[in-house]
Amino acid sequence: MEEILNIQNLSKSFTIHSLDKHIVGSKNINIKLAKGDFIGITGKSGSGKSTILKCLYRTYLPDTGEIWYESSNFGRINLAAASEREIIYLRKHEIGYVSQFLNVMPRTTAKEIIEQAVLEMGHSQELAKKQAVDMLVHFELDEELWNSFPNNFSGGEKLRLNIARAMVKHPRVLLLDEPTASLDNASKLKVRELIEQLKAEGTTMIGIFHDIEFMEGLCDKVYNMQAGNFI
User: Which of 102, 109, 154, 198 has a 20 to 30 Å separation from 180 between CA atoms?
Assistant: First the structure.
């Protein structure tokens, strides 16, 4: 199977100068993923799980280590050393990220948020409108909300919209940071359906979950983190 991600000796730490304190986020992380693999990461809050995903998405710049990614546009590229221009391209076209929080431009409706994600991929306005509706229907977001601004949505509604925006792109790699944290069981099943669909299409995924039951039968391998490292 084609290798798409190879994380080698990844480490990231943080210094709080006002407290003269050094915090280890993650250390010596090594993971290999083939196309279509789904890796799960569990562990207590503060153990460093999210740090790994943020280094992959380059929200954080790693202290040490390499993140080799097989890009459809750039070929083999080290995400830890890639330029800002390359990272922006990859975020738009190849690597998706779902967090518990929805960050969007103000005065943008729920439907427009998903349409913009499709348009970023270079698709037509017509296809963007169709896929946006399909996603909103799938996640059972009330039709009255489609043309509303998400700042007044509930936490669960925002999270469903966040997941829809990332998944509608069918990315090569999808990073999931507690994507089911504030969802009810029916919404969790909707997320699981799409994860299974993306996996079947060959999307490679790394997910952080507290809900162990949700992960059963989904993950090819599960890592448990403690104090910045796998145990």
Answer: 109
